[in-house]
């Protein structure tokens, strides 16, 4: 019984952290990063496909991404998908390769991005706390049903809190790294 509660707790906390990592990867920093294009879908012969499944992506310089389609006829579809993505990127193509140049971020835009990162971090912390609450309720139900003793309940609740604290500190570490990356000139 207790194992099920802890297994579910760990799985849900890991999913929350994974979602945060995905959100933070999508935030643009001063450097070019292929992960910023993860959410971009290309209309590939009528089917939406991730950009990395229709082209080779690379970062030849710190402020440039190059995209080389496997099928040259798809170059305009890829370019159109990037423009429509809402990422504020301006691709240019030479007929064979698409280049995306990342201009340096302004101080104001950097601060804005840090606020967005913190918002994502706070949402993740709320999610982790909700998972903690659900686990504690499940443990209390086990105690009420006489499947665990009161002493065990206290011990298990302490373990749940320890796991929660570790996840919260991991979120803080991720945010600190991302903030440093964003503010780096």
Number of helices: 4
Shape: elongated
Distance between the terminal alpha carbons, to the nearest Å? Answer: 52 Å
Biggest β-sheet: strands ordered side by side in the sheet: 3-4-6-5
What is the SS-derived class? alpha+beta
Average pLDDT confidence is: 88
Question: What value does the Rg take, in angstroms?
Answer: 22 Å
Helix % is 55-70%
Q: Which regions have little confidence, pLDDT < 50, spanning 5+ residues? A: none
Largest sheet: 4 strands, antiparallel
Number of strands: 6
Give me the strand/helix succession.
Answer: HEEEEHEEHH
- Could you tell me the strand content as a percent range? 15-25%
Write the layout of secondary structure elements.
Elements: H1 2-25, E1 41-44, E2 47-50, E3 55-61, E4 64-69, H2 75-84, E5 91-93, E6 98-101, H3 107-144, H4 150-183
Antiparallel strand pairs: 1-2, 3-4, 4-6, 5-6
